[in-house]
């Protein structure tokens, strides 16, 4: 098991929609961004990659409603893989305080991720990892369960 404790610092996470109306504008923006931004290390040679995320929430959808209501201090719990055959998965707790974000993450075997998705949160008890212990605490206390799976490239 790979251990990555949450980052030592918060980061600002700002998202912007960029409307592109032509192929030329897309190419020009790509050129400009490539000069000032680092390429995501998960990208293939075409600059793309697959992501599957399974999000967890309470029976009352507390995390979802906190997000859409604009609550300034909130979290979300998810499992993420970067290709369908991946043999491990990242369990992440993404914490937000206003526009500051920090992620707690741990890598677990695929079998444990599938067990968690199937409702066996007890699988997390075999680890002595702060993120997995924190995830278990929330999942057991607030009855988290998988609510949505999102695939995209």
Helix-strand pattern: EEHEHEEEHHE
Per DSSP, the total helix count is 4
Structural class: alpha+beta
Q: What is the helix content?
A: 25-40%
- Beta strands, count: 7
Mean pLDDT: 87
| Rg (CA only) | 17 Å
Strand content: 25-35%
- Name the poorly predicted regions: 1-7
Give the end-to-end Cα distance, rounded to a whole number of Å. Answer: 26 Å
Principal-axis shape: globular
The largest pleated sheet is described as: 7 strands, antiparallel
Report a brief summary of the structure.
The chain is an alpha+beta fold and 153 residues long.
Can you describe what's shown?
Residues 1-7 have low confidence and may be disordered. Helix content is 28%, strand content 31%. It has helices spanning 23-36, 62-69, 110-117, 130-142, and strands at 3-4, 11-12, 51-57, 73-81, 88-97, 100-109, 145-152. With 153 residues, the protein is of the alpha+beta class. The two termini are 26 Å apart. Strands 1, 2, 3, 4, 5, 6 and 7 form a seven-stranded antiparallel beta sheet that branches. The radius of gyration is 17 Å and the shape is globular.
SSE layout and pairing:
Elements lengths: L2 E2 L6 E2 L10 H14 L14 E7 L4 H8 L3 E9 L6 E10 L2 E10 H8 L12 H13 L2 E8 L1
List keywords for this structure.
153 residues; alpha+beta; 7-stranded antiparallel β-sheet; 4 helices; globular; disordered N terminus
């Amino acid at each position: 098991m790979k251990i990555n404790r949450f980052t030592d610092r918060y980061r600002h996470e700002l998202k912007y929609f960029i409307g592109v109306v032509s192929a030329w504008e897309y190419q020009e923006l790509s050129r400009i961004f490539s000069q000032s931004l680092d390429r995501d290390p998960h990208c293939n040679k075409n600059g793309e990659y697959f992501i599957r995320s399974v999000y967890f929430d309470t029976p009352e959808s507390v995390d979802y409603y906190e997000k859409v209501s604009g609550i300034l201090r909130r979290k979300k719990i998810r499992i993420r893989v970067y290709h369908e055959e991946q043999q491990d998965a990242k369990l992440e707790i993404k914490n937000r305080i206003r526009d500051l974000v920090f992620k707690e993450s741990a890598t677990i075997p695929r079998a444990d991720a599938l067990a968690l998705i199937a409702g066996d949160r007890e699988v997390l008890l075999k680890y002595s990892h702060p993120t997995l212990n924190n995830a278990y605490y929330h999942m057991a206390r607030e009855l988290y369960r998988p609510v949505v799976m999102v695939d995209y490239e």
